Amino acid sequence: MTEMVYGAVPLRDAEPVLPRWWRTIDRWSFFSVLMLFAIGILLGLAASVPLAEKNGFAPFHYVQRQMVFGALALLAMATVSMLRPETVRRLAVLGFLAALVAVMLLPVFGTDFGKGAVRWYSLGFASVQPSEFLKPAFVVVAAWLMAASQEIGGPPGRLWSFWLMVVILGFLAMQPDFGQAALVLFGWGVVWFVSGAPVLLLVGMAGAVVIVGSVAYAHSEHFARRIDGFLSPELDPTTQLGFATNAIREGGFFGVGVGEGQVKWSLPDAHTDFIIAVAAEEYGLVLVLAVIALYAMIVVRSLVRLIRERDPFIRLAGTGLVAMLGAQAMINMGVAVRLLPAKGMTLPFVSYGGSSVVAAGIAVGMLLALTRTRPQGQIGDILRGRR
Protein backbone atom coordinates (compact mmCIF):
# COMPACT_ATOMS: atom_id res chain seq x y z
CA MET A 1 0.00 0.00 0.00
CA THR A 2 2.83 2.40 0.85
CA GLU A 3 4.41 1.84 -2.55
CA MET A 4 1.08 2.46 -4.29
CA VAL A 5 0.62 5.78 -2.49
CA TYR A 6 4.16 7.15 -2.69
CA GLY A 7 5.49 5.47 -5.79
CA ALA A 8 8.43 4.06 -3.89
CA VAL A 9 11.31 2.22 -5.46
CA PRO A 10 11.41 -1.26 -3.92
CA LEU A 11 14.47 -2.02 -1.81
CA ARG A 12 16.57 -5.06 -2.49
CA ASP A 13 16.89 -7.12 0.66
CA ALA A 14 20.40 -7.51 2.03
CA GLU A 15 21.94 -5.67 -0.89
CA PRO A 16 25.61 -4.87 -0.16
CA VAL A 17 26.59 -1.24 0.38
CA LEU A 18 28.81 -0.80 -2.67
CA PRO A 19 26.38 -2.28 -5.25
CA ARG A 20 23.55 -0.19 -3.78
CA TRP A 21 25.73 2.93 -3.88
CA TRP A 22 26.76 2.28 -7.48
CA ARG A 23 23.16 1.64 -8.52
CA THR A 24 21.79 4.83 -6.94
CA ILE A 25 24.41 7.54 -7.66
CA ASP A 26 24.54 9.61 -10.83
CA ARG A 27 27.30 7.75 -12.63
CA TRP A 28 27.53 10.31 -15.44
CA SER A 29 28.43 13.02 -12.95
CA PHE A 30 30.84 10.67 -11.20
CA PHE A 31 32.68 9.87 -14.43
CA SER A 32 32.68 13.55 -15.40
CA VAL A 33 34.63 14.34 -12.24
CA LEU A 34 37.11 11.57 -13.01
CA MET A 35 37.59 12.96 -16.51
CA LEU A 36 38.14 16.48 -15.21
CA PHE A 37 40.77 15.24 -12.79
CA ALA A 38 42.49 13.25 -15.56
CA ILE A 39 42.56 16.37 -17.74
CA GLY A 40 44.02 18.31 -14.81
CA ILE A 41 46.86 15.79 -14.48
CA LEU A 42 47.46 15.94 -18.23
CA LEU A 43 47.67 19.73 -18.18
CA GLY A 44 49.78 19.68 -15.02
CA LEU A 45 52.43 17.62 -16.83
CA ALA A 46 52.98 20.66 -19.05
CA ALA A 47 52.01 23.63 -16.89
CA SER A 48 53.85 22.84 -13.64
CA VAL A 49 57.26 21.82 -15.01
CA PRO A 50 58.59 25.40 -15.43
CA LEU A 51 57.56 26.32 -11.87
CA ALA A 52 59.14 23.15 -10.49
CA GLU A 53 62.43 23.96 -12.22
CA LYS A 54 62.27 27.55 -11.00
CA ASN A 55 61.80 26.40 -7.39
CA GLY A 56 64.50 23.73 -7.62
CA PHE A 57 62.21 20.71 -7.54
CA ALA A 58 62.05 17.65 -9.76
CA PRO A 59 60.23 18.34 -13.06
CA PHE A 60 57.02 16.56 -12.02
CA HIS A 61 57.07 17.56 -8.34
CA TYR A 62 53.73 19.41 -8.51
CA VAL A 63 52.11 16.72 -10.63
CA GLN A 64 53.00 14.07 -8.06
CA ARG A 65 51.59 16.23 -5.27
CA GLN A 66 48.43 16.83 -7.29
CA MET A 67 47.98 13.09 -7.74
CA VAL A 68 48.16 12.66 -3.97
CA PHE A 69 45.69 15.51 -3.43
CA GLY A 70 43.45 14.06 -6.12
CA ALA A 71 43.48 10.61 -4.56
CA LEU A 72 42.40 12.15 -1.24
CA ALA A 73 39.71 14.16 -3.03
CA LEU A 74 38.31 11.17 -4.91
CA LEU A 75 38.34 9.08 -1.73
CA ALA A 76 36.51 11.85 0.12
CA MET A 77 34.02 12.21 -2.74
CA ALA A 78 33.24 8.50 -2.83
CA THR A 79 32.98 8.23 0.95
CA VAL A 80 30.73 11.27 1.39
CA SER A 81 28.52 10.20 -1.52
CA MET A 82 27.62 7.05 0.42
CA LEU A 83 26.14 9.04 3.33
CA ARG A 84 22.48 9.66 4.05
CA PRO A 85 21.21 13.25 3.58
CA GLU A 86 20.84 13.60 7.37
CA THR A 87 24.47 12.60 7.85
CA VAL A 88 25.56 15.00 5.11
CA ARG A 89 23.78 17.79 6.97
CA ARG A 90 25.47 16.94 10.26
CA LEU A 91 28.86 16.70 8.55
CA ALA A 92 28.30 20.10 6.93
CA VAL A 93 27.38 21.73 10.25
CA LEU A 94 30.54 20.44 11.93
CA GLY A 95 32.67 21.34 8.93
CA PHE A 96 31.14 24.80 8.77
CA LEU A 97 31.89 25.54 12.42
CA ALA A 98 35.49 24.34 12.08
CA ALA A 99 36.10 26.23 8.82
CA LEU A 100 34.50 29.42 10.15
CA VAL A 101 36.75 29.41 13.22
CA ALA A 102 39.76 28.77 10.98
CA VAL A 103 38.83 31.72 8.74
CA MET A 104 38.38 33.97 11.78
CA LEU A 105 41.85 33.08 13.07
CA LEU A 106 43.61 33.73 9.76
CA PRO A 107 44.63 37.32 10.68
CA VAL A 108 46.49 35.89 13.70
CA PHE A 109 47.96 32.61 12.46
CA GLY A 110 47.61 32.81 8.66
CA THR A 111 50.14 33.69 5.98
CA ASP A 112 50.00 35.29 2.54
CA PHE A 113 52.99 33.49 0.93
CA GLY A 114 53.99 36.85 -0.52
CA LYS A 115 50.75 37.24 -2.51
CA GLY A 116 49.30 40.12 -0.48
CA ALA A 117 46.28 38.21 0.84
CA VAL A 118 46.27 36.25 4.11
CA ARG A 119 44.30 33.18 3.04
CA TRP A 120 46.38 30.18 4.09
CA TYR A 121 47.73 28.26 7.06
CA SER A 122 51.25 27.00 6.48
CA LEU A 123 51.80 23.44 7.71
CA GLY A 124 55.39 23.25 6.51
CA PHE A 125 54.87 20.35 4.10
CA ALA A 126 51.65 21.86 2.72
CA SER A 127 49.17 24.72 3.17
CA VAL A 128 45.45 24.86 3.90
CA GLN A 129 42.97 27.46 2.66
CA PRO A 130 39.96 27.17 5.01
CA SER A 131 37.64 29.28 2.84
CA GLU A 132 37.62 26.45 0.26
CA PHE A 133 36.00 24.14 2.83
CA LEU A 134 33.76 26.89 4.20
CA LYS A 135 31.91 27.41 0.90
CA PRO A 136 30.18 24.02 0.46
CA ALA A 137 29.57 23.60 4.17
CA PHE A 138 27.89 27.00 4.41
CA VAL A 139 25.63 26.30 1.44
CA VAL A 140 24.35 23.11 3.08
CA VAL A 141 23.89 24.86 6.44
CA ALA A 142 22.01 27.72 4.76
CA ALA A 143 19.80 25.22 2.94
CA TRP A 144 19.05 23.45 6.21
CA LEU A 145 18.07 26.73 7.90
CA MET A 146 15.87 27.83 5.01
CA ALA A 147 14.19 24.44 4.74
CA ALA A 148 13.50 24.50 8.48
CA SER A 149 11.94 27.96 8.16
CA GLN A 150 9.31 26.51 5.81
CA GLU A 151 8.01 24.18 8.51
CA ILE A 152 5.12 25.18 10.75
CA GLY A 153 6.60 26.86 13.81
CA GLY A 154 10.07 26.65 12.28
CA PRO A 155 12.92 29.06 13.09
CA PRO A 156 13.61 32.25 11.07
CA GLY A 157 16.10 30.35 8.96
CA ARG A 158 16.37 32.88 6.16
CA LEU A 159 17.30 35.64 8.60
CA TRP A 160 19.82 33.47 10.46
CA SER A 161 21.46 32.35 7.23
CA PHE A 162 21.61 35.97 6.05
CA TRP A 163 23.55 37.10 9.13
CA LEU A 164 25.85 34.09 8.87
CA MET A 165 26.53 35.09 5.27
CA VAL A 166 27.29 38.68 6.29
CA VAL A 167 29.78 37.48 8.93
CA ILE A 168 31.51 35.22 6.40
CA LEU A 169 31.73 37.97 3.80
CA GLY A 170 33.22 40.30 6.37
CA PHE A 171 36.04 37.92 7.27
CA LEU A 172 36.71 37.05 3.62
CA ALA A 173 36.93 40.76 2.75
CA MET A 174 39.53 41.20 5.50
CA GLN A 175 41.94 38.73 3.82
CA PRO A 176 41.09 40.12 1.15
CA ASP A 177 39.46 37.37 -0.92
CA PHE A 178 36.65 38.91 -2.95
CA GLY A 179 36.47 35.94 -5.30
CA GLN A 180 35.52 33.49 -2.56
CA ALA A 181 33.22 36.11 -1.06
CA ALA A 182 31.41 36.43 -4.39
CA LEU A 183 30.98 32.63 -4.57
CA VAL A 184 29.60 32.48 -1.02
CA LEU A 185 27.15 35.28 -1.81
CA PHE A 186 26.14 33.62 -5.08
CA GLY A 187 25.60 30.21 -3.46
CA TRP A 188 23.52 31.71 -0.67
CA GLY A 189 21.53 33.79 -3.18
CA VAL A 190 20.70 30.71 -5.25
CA VAL A 191 19.49 28.81 -2.18
CA TRP A 192 17.48 31.84 -1.06
CA PHE A 193 15.90 32.23 -4.50
CA VAL A 194 14.97 28.54 -4.80
CA SER A 195 13.47 28.61 -1.29
CA GLY A 196 10.97 31.22 -2.47
CA ALA A 197 12.54 34.62 -1.79
CA PRO A 198 10.71 37.55 -3.43
CA VAL A 199 12.37 38.87 -6.57
CA LEU A 200 12.20 42.40 -5.16
CA LEU A 201 14.47 41.37 -2.29
CA LEU A 202 16.94 39.84 -4.74
CA VAL A 203 17.00 43.12 -6.67
CA GLY A 204 17.71 44.90 -3.40
CA MET A 205 20.55 42.48 -2.69
CA ALA A 206 22.01 43.19 -6.13
CA GLY A 207 21.90 46.90 -5.36
CA ALA A 208 23.62 46.30 -2.04
CA VAL A 209 26.37 44.34 -3.83
CA VAL A 210 26.97 47.31 -6.15
CA ILE A 211 27.22 49.67 -3.16
CA VAL A 212 29.61 47.38 -1.28
CA GLY A 213 31.68 46.94 -4.43
CA SER A 214 31.96 50.71 -4.80
CA VAL A 215 33.13 51.04 -1.20
CA ALA A 216 35.67 48.24 -1.69
CA TYR A 217 36.93 49.89 -4.86
CA ALA A 218 37.46 53.16 -2.99
CA HIS A 219 39.20 51.65 0.06
CA SER A 220 40.96 48.48 -1.17
CA GLU A 221 44.00 48.90 -3.39
CA HIS A 222 43.99 45.15 -4.12
CA PHE A 223 40.37 45.28 -5.35
CA ALA A 224 40.79 48.55 -7.26
CA ARG A 225 43.90 47.32 -9.08
CA ARG A 226 42.06 44.29 -10.46
CA ILE A 227 39.00 46.30 -11.50
CA ASP A 228 41.17 48.94 -13.21
CA GLY A 229 43.09 46.24 -15.07
CA PHE A 230 39.82 44.70 -16.26
CA LEU A 231 38.29 47.99 -17.40
CA SER A 232 41.41 49.31 -19.08
CA PRO A 233 40.99 49.43 -22.89
CA GLU A 234 44.65 48.56 -23.31
CA LEU A 235 45.79 45.11 -22.20
CA ASP A 236 49.38 44.95 -21.00
CA PRO A 237 50.87 41.92 -22.78
CA THR A 238 53.31 41.36 -19.89
CA THR A 239 50.56 40.76 -17.30
CA GLN A 240 49.01 37.38 -16.52
CA LEU A 241 45.84 38.34 -18.39
CA GLY A 242 47.95 39.45 -21.36
CA PHE A 243 49.86 36.17 -21.50
CA ALA A 244 46.67 34.13 -21.08
CA THR A 245 44.76 36.02 -23.76
CA ASN A 246 47.61 35.64 -26.23
CA ALA A 247 47.93 31.91 -25.47
CA ILE A 248 44.22 31.32 -26.12
CA ARG A 249 44.49 33.24 -29.39
CA GLU A 250 47.54 31.24 -30.48
CA GLY A 251 45.92 27.90 -29.68
CA GLY A 252 43.15 28.25 -32.24
CA PHE A 253 40.92 25.24 -32.82
CA PHE A 254 43.36 22.34 -32.45
CA GLY A 255 46.22 23.94 -30.47
CA VAL A 256 49.92 24.31 -31.19
CA GLY A 257 50.74 20.78 -30.06
CA VAL A 258 51.45 18.85 -26.88
CA GLY A 259 54.35 20.43 -25.00
CA GLU A 260 54.76 23.19 -27.60
CA GLY A 261 52.98 25.93 -25.65
CA GLN A 262 54.93 28.92 -24.34
CA VAL A 263 52.52 30.50 -21.86
CA LYS A 264 53.54 28.10 -19.07
CA TRP A 265 57.01 29.68 -19.08
CA SER A 266 55.59 33.17 -18.56
CA LEU A 267 52.63 32.69 -16.21
CA PRO A 268 53.46 32.12 -12.53
CA ASP A 269 49.93 30.73 -12.01
CA ALA A 270 49.78 28.65 -15.19
CA HIS A 271 49.11 25.48 -13.19
CA THR A 272 46.43 27.04 -10.98
CA ASP A 273 44.30 30.07 -11.90
CA PHE A 274 45.18 30.08 -15.63
CA ILE A 275 45.30 26.36 -16.35
CA ILE A 276 42.64 26.78 -19.04
CA ALA A 277 45.06 29.03 -20.98
CA VAL A 278 47.53 26.15 -21.13
CA ALA A 279 44.74 23.85 -22.34
CA ALA A 280 43.67 26.33 -25.02
CA GLU A 281 47.21 26.93 -26.29
CA GLU A 282 48.42 23.32 -26.49
CA TYR A 283 45.17 21.47 -27.23
CA GLY A 284 43.01 24.23 -28.68
CA LEU A 285 39.31 24.94 -28.49
CA VAL A 286 38.54 21.22 -28.70
CA LEU A 287 39.79 20.48 -25.19
CA VAL A 288 38.28 23.68 -23.77
CA LEU A 289 34.86 22.69 -25.12
CA ALA A 290 35.32 19.20 -23.66
CA VAL A 291 36.04 20.72 -20.22
CA ILE A 292 32.96 22.95 -20.49
CA ALA A 293 30.85 19.96 -21.54
CA LEU A 294 31.97 17.96 -18.49
CA TYR A 295 30.99 20.75 -16.10
CA ALA A 296 27.70 21.17 -17.95
CA MET A 297 27.08 17.43 -17.59
CA ILE A 298 27.45 17.63 -13.81
CA VAL A 299 25.28 20.74 -13.50
CA VAL A 300 22.46 19.67 -15.81
CA ARG A 301 22.16 16.09 -14.59
CA SER A 302 22.22 17.18 -10.95
CA LEU A 303 19.53 19.80 -11.50
CA VAL A 304 17.34 17.31 -13.38
CA ARG A 305 17.54 14.92 -10.43
CA LEU A 306 16.93 17.68 -7.90
CA ILE A 307 13.82 18.91 -9.72
CA ARG A 308 12.19 15.54 -8.96
CA GLU A 309 13.14 15.62 -5.27
CA ARG A 310 10.45 16.04 -2.61
CA ASP A 311 12.61 16.92 0.38
CA PRO A 312 13.06 20.74 0.56
CA PHE A 313 16.46 20.48 2.26
CA ILE A 314 17.83 18.17 -0.43
CA ARG A 315 16.52 20.41 -3.23
CA LEU A 316 17.99 23.56 -1.69
CA ALA A 317 21.35 22.10 -0.65
CA GLY A 318 21.91 20.26 -3.92
CA THR A 319 20.97 23.27 -6.03
CA GLY A 320 23.30 25.53 -4.04
CA LEU A 321 26.21 23.10 -4.31
CA VAL A 322 25.92 22.52 -8.05
CA ALA A 323 25.33 26.22 -8.75
CA MET A 324 28.47 27.12 -6.82
CA LEU A 325 30.52 24.49 -8.68
CA GLY A 326 29.31 25.71 -12.06
CA ALA A 327 29.82 29.37 -11.12
CA GLN A 328 33.41 28.75 -9.99
CA ALA A 329 34.23 27.05 -13.28
CA MET A 330 32.62 29.87 -15.26
CA ILE A 331 34.46 32.54 -13.29
CA ASN A 332 37.84 30.85 -13.72
CA MET A 333 37.42 30.49 -17.49
CA GLY A 334 35.80 33.93 -17.78
CA VAL A 335 38.84 35.54 -16.18
CA ALA A 336 41.19 33.78 -18.61
CA VAL A 337 39.37 35.24 -21.63
CA ARG A 338 38.95 38.63 -19.90
CA LEU A 339 35.19 38.48 -19.54
CA LEU A 340 35.58 38.97 -15.77
CA PRO A 341 38.08 40.71 -13.48
CA ALA A 342 40.90 38.58 -12.08
CA LYS A 343 39.67 36.65 -9.03
CA GLY A 344 42.45 34.26 -8.04
CA MET A 345 40.07 31.31 -8.33
CA THR A 346 40.93 27.74 -9.30
CA LEU A 347 39.21 25.53 -11.87
CA PRO A 348 37.63 22.69 -9.83
CA PHE A 349 39.45 19.34 -10.18
CA VAL A 350 41.65 20.71 -12.99
CA SER A 351 43.81 23.36 -11.31
CA TYR A 352 46.64 22.48 -8.95
CA GLY A 353 45.91 22.94 -5.25
CA GLY A 354 45.38 20.68 -2.28
CA SER A 355 42.65 22.63 -0.50
CA SER A 356 40.83 23.35 -3.75
CA VAL A 357 40.68 19.81 -5.06
CA VAL A 358 39.91 18.15 -1.70
CA ALA A 359 37.17 20.68 -0.92
CA ALA A 360 35.72 20.18 -4.41
CA GLY A 361 35.76 16.43 -3.82
CA ILE A 362 33.82 16.84 -0.58
CA ALA A 363 31.36 19.22 -2.23
CA VAL A 364 30.65 16.88 -5.16
CA GLY A 365 30.46 13.96 -2.72
CA MET A 366 27.69 15.79 -0.86
CA LEU A 367 25.99 16.56 -4.17
CA LEU A 368 26.13 12.90 -5.24
CA ALA A 369 24.76 11.84 -1.85
CA LEU A 370 21.85 14.26 -2.16
CA THR A 371 21.01 13.26 -5.74
CA ARG A 372 21.09 9.51 -5.17
CA THR A 373 17.98 7.54 -6.04
CA ARG A 374 16.16 6.77 -2.80
CA PRO A 375 13.04 4.71 -2.00
CA GLN A 376 10.68 7.67 -1.83
CA GLY A 377 8.17 9.34 -4.04
CA GLN A 378 9.14 12.34 -6.13
CA ILE A 379 7.67 15.82 -6.13
CA GLY A 380 5.77 15.02 -9.32
CA ASP A 381 3.70 12.50 -7.36
CA ILE A 382 2.44 15.29 -5.11
CA LEU A 383 1.71 17.64 -8.00
CA ARG A 384 -0.24 14.97 -9.89
CA GLY A 385 -2.18 14.18 -6.74
CA ARG A 386 -3.42 17.76 -6.49
CA ARG A 387 -5.05 17.78 -9.91
Give a short synopsis of this structure.
The chain has 387 residues and is an all-alpha fold.
Describe this structure in words.
Helices cover 69% and strands 1% of the residues. A hairpin with a 4-residue loop joins strand 1 (121-122) and strand 2 (127-128). A two-stranded antiparallel ribbon has the order 1-2. By secondary structure, it is an all-alpha fold. The chain starts with a helix and ends with a helix. The protein has helices at residues 2-6, 17-24, 27-47, 49-54, 61-81, 85-104, 106-109, 130-149, 157-174, 178-194, 199-219, 221-231, 240-251, 275-307, 312-336, 354-370, 379-385, and strands spanning 121-122, 127-128. It has one domain (16-385). Helix 8 (130-149) packs antiparallel against helix 9 (157-174) and helix 8 packs antiparallel against helix 15.
Features:
single chain; 387 residues; mainly alpha; two-stranded antiparallel ribbon; 2 strands; globular; disordered N terminus
- Following the backbone from N to C, one meets helices and strands in this order, namely HHHHHHHEEHHHHHHHHHH
Largest sheet composition: 2 strands, antiparallel
Q: Rough shape? A: globular
Number of strands: 2
Q: Indicate how many domains the architecture comprises.
A: 1
Residues in β-strands, percent? under 5%
Would you identify the regions where 5 or more consecutive residues have pLDDT less than 50? Answer: 1-9
Find the structural class using helix and strand composition.
mainly alpha
CA-CA gap between termini: 21 Å
Count the helices. How many? 17
